[in-house]
């Protein structure tokens, strides 16, 4: 590499790293607890335990559970039923009126087998976010919604440029050094330079994958909303404005759920949204399904069931860009390979913090001399060593 | 040092990382998870070995 391009890459590495340093530290620190989100939620949960029943106990009918929810809140309307696939849990979301805001959703958690009410969560407006919610919001959008997501997505791209330029600079710095050399006794600066290079290059693939899938994640919500507002609305247009059938005219939720299970093997239904005139169809149950393999486990596709006749009306296929983004999501979270994979994610996250901190140290302790002089000096030291 | 020598270890570790990330994603449980953990752990072990050997 000639001196001019070396200088250029060094400038790219310096400025991209400085721009994203604070945010990268935020990503790393808030990401640490989020890796174990599921375990922490379980640990911190004060909900009553599930009934101790054999693993093959069948699930209670969603109609029975729905009726129990309505008996408890006769003045509310059910909005959705969510069926968990790794806990015996069914959650019913209810609103004070069909046009109430989603923030007023009241959540009723049931034991899926006994149909017994375990816990009731007040609308989000009255109960504040917990620790993990705060970590997630800081990690995802800095409490700033869509602008925050787009901003952090852009920061993610700057970070990717910082990693790529760091990888490019690796070769000239290692020209005279064996792989993995750490010069412990040549002063603090060289020691940290070597550690920065070693840890940075050993984790480059992971860091790039997590960084890029993080950017895709930031784009997924806005793109999904856009898709819902355009394509989905176009599909629902023929039904728009039709009155929502009264609850007692609706066909069975349980039948809608099992119909999807039966007709679409390879897809697991996760939730059923009741007919409504805002987010769904006024005339259909909207059943969200996800794929049943790790690759497709975050690939959510909607299925419409005629809510009066209980017939399969439409399987909606997502556009390719949303499928691509959803399939890449597990690669960001690291939650697809058991606890050991999460521990590896945790260690790699910690190493990224060390790379970040050592990079900042190298910049703060920099010499006021051109890069080629620094390189020559470093190599001179290497020759002596 | 020739580029092939400089890049030998970094590329090996990058390939192992990709194998580790993909194997748990495409394969279900069991052997594939084990392969994933091992492949992802090797770069960490190499790094630790370089740091410990002073």
From TrEMBL, chain A:
Membrane-traversing stretches: 12-36, 150-174, 195-216, 343-364
The organism's place on the tree of life at top rank: Bacteria
Keyword flag Membrane: yes
InterPro entries: PepSY-ass_TM (IPR005625)
Keywords: Membrane, Transmembrane, Transmembrane helix
Cross-referenced PANTHER family: BLL7967 PROTEIN (PTHR34219:SF3), IRON-REGULATED INNER MEMBRANE PROTEIN-RELATED (PTHR34219)
Protein name: Membrane protein
Organism: Reyranella soli
Lineage: Bacteria, Pseudomonadati, Pseudomonadota, Alphaproteobacteria, Hyphomicrobiales
């Amino acid at each position: 590499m000639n001196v001019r391009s070396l200088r250029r890459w060094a400038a790219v590495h310096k400025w991209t790293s400085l721009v994203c340093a604070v945010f990268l530290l935020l990503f790393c620190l808030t990401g640490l607890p989020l890796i174990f989100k599921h375990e922490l939620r379980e640990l911190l949960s004060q909900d009553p335990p599930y009934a101790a029943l054999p693993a093959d106990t069948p699930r209670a009918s969603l109609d029975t559970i729905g009726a129990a929810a309505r008996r408890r809140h006769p003045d509310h309307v059910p909005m959705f039923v969510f069926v968990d696939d790794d806990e015996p849990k069914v959650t019913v979301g209810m609103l004070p009126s069909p046009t109430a805001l989603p923030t007023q959703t009241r959540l009723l958690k049931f034991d899926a087998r006994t149909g017994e009410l375990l816990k009731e969560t007040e609308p989000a407006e009255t109960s504040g976010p917990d620790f993990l919610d705060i970590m997630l919001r800081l990690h995802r959008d800095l409490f700033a919604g869509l602008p925050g997501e787009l901003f952090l997505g852009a920061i993610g791209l700057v970070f990717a440029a910082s990693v790529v330029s760091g990888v490019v600079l690796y070769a000239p710095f290692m020209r005279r050094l064996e792989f993995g050399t750490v010069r412990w006794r040549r002063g603090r600066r060289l020691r940290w330079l070597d550690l920065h290079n070693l840890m940075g290059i050993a984790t480059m693939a992971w860091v790039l994958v997590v960084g890029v899938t993080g950017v895709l994640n930031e784009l997924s919500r806005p793109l999904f909303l856009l898709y819902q507002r355009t394509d989905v609305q176009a599909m629902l247009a023929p039904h728009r404005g039709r009155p929502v059938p009264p609850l007692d005219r609706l066909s069975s939720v349980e039948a809608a759920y099992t119909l999807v299970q039966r007709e679409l093997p390879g897809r697991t239904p996760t939730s059923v949204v009741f007919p409504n005139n805002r987010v769904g169809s006024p005339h259909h149950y909207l059943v969200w399904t996800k794929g049943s393999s790790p690759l497709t486990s975050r690939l959510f596709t909607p299925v419409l069931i005629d809510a009066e006749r209980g017939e399969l009306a439409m399987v909606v296929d997502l556009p390719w860009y949303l499928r691509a983004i959803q399939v890449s999501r597990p690669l960001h979270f690291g939650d697809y390979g058991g606890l050991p994979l999460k521990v590896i994610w945790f260690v790699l996250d910690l190493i990224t913090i060390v790379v970040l901190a050592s990079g900042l140290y190298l910049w703060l302790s920099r010499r006021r001399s051109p890069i080629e002089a620094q390189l020559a000096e470093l190599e001179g030291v290497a020759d002596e060593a | 040092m020739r580029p092939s020598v400089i890049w030998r270890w970094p590329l090996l570790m990058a390939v192992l990382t990709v194998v580790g990330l993909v194997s748990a994603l495409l394969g279900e449980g069991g052997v594939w998870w084990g392969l994933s953990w091992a492949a992802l752990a090797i770069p960490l072990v190499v790094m630790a070995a370089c740091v410990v050997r002073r």
